[in-house]
Design a protein that fits this description.
The protein has 998 residues and is mainly beta. Helices cover 4% and strands 48% of the residues. β13 and β14 (197-198) form a beta hairpin. The radius of gyration is 30 Å and the shape is globular. The chain starts with a helix and ends with a strand.
């Protein structure tokens, strides 16, 4: 039993933790066992852990079993010194601690009166004996050495088994939010932690980060312990900090179309590829400085970065006299001439970061971090069928939303942390984080707010204007974790971690459709776009104030006995939400006379009184991980794990169901209440007037609106009192082997099953309510290369009800299974390497008629492909070799994968009984695919030392072999642009860089 004083401290701290919160792990630990020359354990050995990343060394004493543990160590390289009177001290040097890594450092001390140290170098293990988590890790050593695009999303694309929706070549996609998929997990459950604090706790929100502020980035895909709630991808970033030495650096990178190849063939141009997807210009610059405020007591670090990227969009042209002929007939002009006429989409990112650490006393360390990360983008949504005036701008939120640099202006994030070491067995970490990834997206000018949008459903063309969305997302995370080491209990050593989570997240969202209406056309391919009026989709403004309130707690124990380590934990989550009161005005069409003279009766003004979620989710999720050291050397380890995960609820996910103003799709999006009605455009001006609307036939509706009671301002929707959180069951098995010093080979098999999904199903409607209808598109509707096949779709035999039930989707499930092989060598002996091969399968199943509603496009066994992102196999590698002459570095990245699904459809623009339009899939998702994707990037650099400064020029060549893989085509077959190429891999581009450091 431990001492009563220690027990009192532990009990008190446990009580404090249970009212606080837990956060992701941004540190690692060193542990091990000390013996003498006869292999007898040595208690009482002083273990001193020191590093440039520590303000003060950490000290532990081995227990009666000869074991020790030093948790909560920042990422870095350490020295571990073992000493006791009568024995010769041993020092283990160059022990590397990565995010979440547990490094086993054992020592054997020999009896001796000599005090000269026995120094052991290169003992840093590569196999973690305590963790079953799988993913990848990138540190500054790797990120500075290989030709990586300076973007977090692009780095995710280097993780074994991970897929991204956008391929960034030399920066032509930098700063753009990208779908990231792995292990079949839903995108809504992705998380991003920065220095241990959850900055995406409301699921799937975008983030922008100064790439050069990253010290280390760990991406975990599976095998997580009880500290993690969700089954989605976890991006865990540790940023740089100061030290006792003044250090600084500056860098600049430039790429331009004059250093870019051409990769568009005449055949691709005839298929619509235009000038491809060029990077027109990229500029990237920044500087950092860190050092002591008071040596050994206080450090600071700060950085500023700026990046501007201009990219070309296929067939999106400047509206000038010189470019008009090019836009009219681009095939008559060279690729260079076409490129010069492209209207660039420019994204500007600015970052200001700083942090400070203070060693309050020998046992206590306090730190603070603050960053401002701004993105401005000029023509979002631009493409060949969306002109300039129908694109949007991304800007910082205006000051009406709150104080600058706190809510409006440059989006901020804050993190405060305090770490207290009570003893060599007891450590407490507490903190608070606040993030506001707030955005304002609107038309190109305020004048367009009053201009009706135009949309041709025949070919997808847009015109005239767009909408406006403002998203203010305040995320508050309170965190505390407690680490306790208890050796010699139940025949082994225990490493306990206890924590809780308290999330208090609030969002304010606006979704405003220009002029509150979209004029829809349905034009045959033989006529110009916007020739045949179709329907009017009328909107009411959507505004929502929403909350997510979550309390969580977890207990995790890592029990080690001889070669066996068992990690067992359980997690509890209590999730609640609410919607605040809000009022919106009626549609501007409300009360105006329609085509038959009756006043427009839909979309009246609403005063929503707010709502509390009637269902609170309380879930308990067990986790089990087992590792077994086959040889006792820590170099051959079997690993297995089981985990039950429950999804995190979105803000107002349940209470928002009863909000008649709008349907909350996610933390950042709303679907405004709308109704779609026939429109005849009797005056031929192509704009919707009330007297051109037939309000007696409803084509479709949505956004929480109930057309069955058009004047009602209270939602009729229902919430199943038994609705529960979606769940994921995961099992994994693998083997890790240290082939040589700093070289690891691992294999892993993972299987998951996703069940208990949420859906909102119309009350009184089921799959039995739908009847099949066949359609053969007329030959005139399909271009020569299109698939004009007969399709079957389904229509309801009753009008789609306006009331929905929020409940769990019965019987539907999704599975995932994958196998991965990974070879990793750390940077030693002048080279490093990471290579992987993954085989994945993620089908969806609808085993009964209750598992779906509309049978159209229900294809059992189709691949899960959100955003079109799905690959059954992937092979990746990156590495660096330092030549023996002048330290010239040669780096390379190779990425090869199966092409993503190409979903071809037949468009049915309208169905009776308010079922709305639908695109009927011709094949199961994943059966038809785009071409196999491959790309290779290359880097060469050479450092020069000038006094205290190091200069490092770099040359990066992206898409070295100038591949031109087609990445996207238009899939609607009965459209004028069927199968047209909309995206190809960016051409080879050279980026020049220069860095200086001291």
């Amino acid at each position: 039993m431990f001492a009563s004083a220690e027990r009192a401290v532990l009990v008190t701290l446990l009580a404090l933790v249970m009212t606080g919160a837990a956060a992701a792990q941004d540190t690692g630990q060193i542990f091990g066992r000390v013996t003498d020359g006869t292999d007898a354990v040595l208690p009482g050995v002083t273990v001193t852990v020191s590093s440039p990343v520590l303000l003060q060394p950490r000290v532990a004493v081995t227990s009666v079993t000869g074991t020790y543990q030093v948790p909560g160590l920042p990422v870095g390289t350490y020295s571990v010194r073992f000493e006791i009177v009568g024995f010769r001290p041993v020092v283990a040097e160059q022990v590397r601690i990565e995010i979440g890594f547990s490094a086993q450092i054992n020592a054997t001390l020999e009896i001796s009166n000599l005090q000269e140290d026995v120094v052991v170098v290169g003992v840093s293990p590569v196999v973690d004996l305590k963790s079953t988590a799988k993913g990848a890790l990138f540190n500054t050593e790797t990120l500075d050495a290989i030709p990586v695009v300076r973007d977090v999303y692009a780095v995710f694309g280097q993780v074994p088994g991970a897929a991204i929706s956008k391929q960034n070549v030399g920066g032509n996609g930098s700063g753009n939010t990208t779908v990231m998929i792995a292990r079949g997990a839903p995108t809504s459950q992705q998380k991003t932690f920065i220095d241990g604090v959850d900055f995406s706790s409301t699921a799937g929100t975008p983030f922008y980060l100064d790439f050069d502020s990253i010290q280390e980035m760990q991406i975990t895909l599976s095998g997580m312990d009880a500290s993690m709630q969700h089954s989605g991808n976890t991006i865990n970033i540790v940023t740089k900090s100061g030290s006792d030495l003044f250090r600084g650096s500056a860098r600049t990178f430039v790429a331009d179309q004059m250093f870019q190849a051409e990769n568009v063939t005449d055949e691709l141009r005839r298929q619509g590829a235009s000038a491809g997807s060029p990077l027109l210009n990229m500029k990237d610059a920044g500087a950092e400085l860190g050092g002591p405020i008071l040596r050994g007591r206080a450090w600071f670090w700060g950085a500023y970065a700026w990046q501007e990227v201009s990219t070309g969009v296929i067939a999106f042209y400047r509206k000038t006299a010189e470019c008009a002929p090019v836009a009219a007939n681009e095939l008559q002009y060279s690729i260079k001439q076409v490129r010069e006429c492209l209207n660039p989409n420019t994204a500007t990112l600015k970052h200001l970061n700083y942090n400070a650490k203070l060693q309050v006393n020998q046992a206590n360390r306090f730190s603070v971090r603050n960053s401002y990360d701004l993105k401005i983008e000029t023509v979002r949504g631009a493409n060949d069928i969306t002109p300039f005036e129908a694109t949007t701008r991304l800007d910082p939120p205006p000051s009406r939303f709150g104080p600058r640099f706190w809510t409006s202006g440059w989006p901020p994030s804050w993190k405060f942390n305090d770490q207290h070491v009570f003893s060599d067995r007891l450590l407490l970490d507490i903190g608070y984080g606040r993030g506001c990834p707030c955005t304002a997206i609107g038309p190109q000018s305020e004048d367009l707010d009053s201009v009706q949008q135009a949309w041709d459903v025949g070919n997808g063309a847009r015109a005239r204007s767009t909408g406006r969305t403002n998203s203010i997302r305040i995320r508050n995370t309170y965190n505390a974790t407690l680490d306790y080491f208890r050796p010699g209990m139940l025949g082994g050593d225990h490493s306990f971690k206890v924590g809780v989570v308290y999330l208090r997240n609030w969002t304010y969202n606006e979704s405003l459709t220009s002029a509150n209406v979209i004029a829809k056309f349905n034009t045959p391919r033989t006529l110009p776009s916007f020739s045949v009026p179709f329907t009017a989709q009328l909107f009411r403004d959507a505004i929502a104030k929403r909350w997510l309130l979550q309390h969580s707690a977890f207990v995790q124990d890592s029990y080690t006995r001889n070669r066996l380590t068992v990690g067992i934990g359980v997690r509890w989550d209590r999730q609640d939400d609410r919607s605040d009161p809000i009022s919106v005005s009626a549609s501007p069409f409300f009360g105006q006379p329609t085509a038959d003279g009756t006043p427009f009766r839909f979309l009246p003004a609403v005063d929503f009184p707010g709502a509390e979620a009637p269902v609170i989710w309380n879930t308990f999720a067990p986790r089990l991980g087992v590792t077994f050291d086959l040889t006792g050397s820590g170099k051959n380890v079997l690993k297995a794990s089981y985990g039950l995960y429950f999804d995190q609820r979105d803000v107002a996910e349940i209470s928002g169901v009863t909000n008649p103003i709008a349907l909350a799709n996610s933390v950042s999006n709303l679907t405004a209440a709308f109704i779609e009605l026939p429109w005849n455009d009797s005056n031929g001006d192509k704009f919707v007037q009330a007297n051109e609307i037939n309000q007696n036939v409803i084509r479709s509706f949505g956004g929480g609106y109930n057309p069955d009671d058009p004047g009602r301002t209270v939602s009729p929707n229902l919430i199943d009192p038994g609705v529960s959180a979606p769940r994921t069951d995961e099992f994994s098995f693998g083997f890790s082997k240290e082939l040589a010093a700093n070289v690891e080979l691992s294999t892993t098999y993972t299987r998951r099953k996703y069940t208990n999904m949420i859906w909102q199903t119309p009350i009184g409607l089921s799959s039995a309510s739908y009847q099949p209808v066949t359609l053969t598109p007329p030959a005139t509707a399909c271009p020569a290369s299109a698939r004009c096949e007969t399709v079957t779709y389904f229509v309801p035999n009753i009008p789609v009800p306006g009331e929905v039930l929020y409940t769990n989707q019965p019987d539907f499930n999704r599975t995932y299974q994958g196998f991965e092989v990974l070879l990793r060598k750390r940077m030693t002996d002048r080279w490093m390497l990471t290579a992987s091969l993954s085989l994945d399968d993620s089908p969806e199943f609808f085993p009964t008629a209750a598992s779906y509603l509309d049978p159209t496009n229900v294809k059992d066994g189709s691949q899960y492909a959100p955003g079109g992102t799905n690959a059954r196999w992937m092979a990746r590698g990156n590495g660096l070799y330092l030549l023996p002459w002048f330290d010239i570095g040669l780096g390379a990245v190779l990425d090869v994968r199966q092409g993503y699904p190409f979903v071809q459809t037949i468009n049915v623009p309208s169905r009776p009984n308010r079922a709305g339009a639908i695109q009927v899939q011709l094949d199961p998702v994943g059966e038809v695919r785009l071409p196999t994707f491959w790309i290779m990037d290359f880097r060469i650099d050479r450092p020069f030392r000038v006094g205290a400064f190091t200069l490092k020029p770099t040359v990066d060549i992206f898409n070295l072999f100038n591949a031109n893989t087609v990445l996207a085509r238009r899939g609607v077959q009965n459209a004028s642009n069927a199968n047209q190429v909309t995206l190809i891999l960016g051409p080879r581009v050279v980026r020049f860089g220069m860095g200086v450091s001291f």
